């Protein structure tokens, strides 16, 4: 895998993981009891963005490692994914010869 492809894949996994991690441990101002005037009651009381970015990176590295091993070992291939939807050569010849007989 080219380094640019690896970086792009990691970034996409990291970005999706970020949105999965953002709600972890969030307490609203309403739940915390200290409301800042002029803010929405559902706004987070304490964001802790650094901690969330660290967790995002750790989870994304684990997901990327699994995806890389699956790719490197070729446990899932494009041919394998397309196999249920593609005729084999023998099936195609059988179907086309039947079409020629009936027409």
3D structure, described in words:
- It contains five helices and no strands.
- It has one domain.
- The mean pLDDT is about 85.
- It is elongated and about 70 Å long.
- With about 100 residues, it is an all-alpha fold.
Brief write-up:
The protein is an all-alpha fold and 103 residues long.
Distance between the amino and carboxyl termini: 49 Å
Silhouette = elongated
Q: What is the strand content?
A: under 5%
Helix residue percentage: 55-70%
Major sheet summary line: none
Structure annotation, total helices: 5
Taken together, the total number of domains comes to 1
**Helix/strand/pairing category:** mainly alpha
Q: What gyration radius follows from the Cα positions, in whole Å?
A: 25 Å
Overall mean confidence score, pLDDT: 84
* Strand elements, count: 0
List SSEs in N-to-C order.
HHHHH
Low-confidence stretches: none
List the helices and strands and how they pair.
Layout: H1 3-21, H2 29-32, H3 49-72, H4 78-82, H5 89-102
Helix pairs in contact: 1-3
Sum up the structure in keywords.
single chain, 103 residues, mainly alpha, 64% helix, 0% strand
């Amino acid at each position: 895998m080219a380094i640019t492809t690896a970086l792009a894949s990691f970034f996409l996994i990291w970005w999706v993981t970020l949105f999965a991690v953002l709600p972890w441990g969030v307490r609203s101002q309403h739940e915390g009891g200290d409301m800042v005037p002029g803010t929405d009651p559902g706004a987070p009381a304490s964001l802790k963005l650094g901690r969330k970015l660290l967790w995002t990176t750790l989870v994304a590295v684990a997901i990327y490692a699994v995806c890389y091993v699956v790719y490197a070992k070729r446990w899932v291939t494009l041919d394998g994914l397309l196999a249920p939807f593609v005729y084999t050569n023998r099936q195609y010849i059988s179907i086309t010869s039947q079409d020629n007989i009936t027409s």
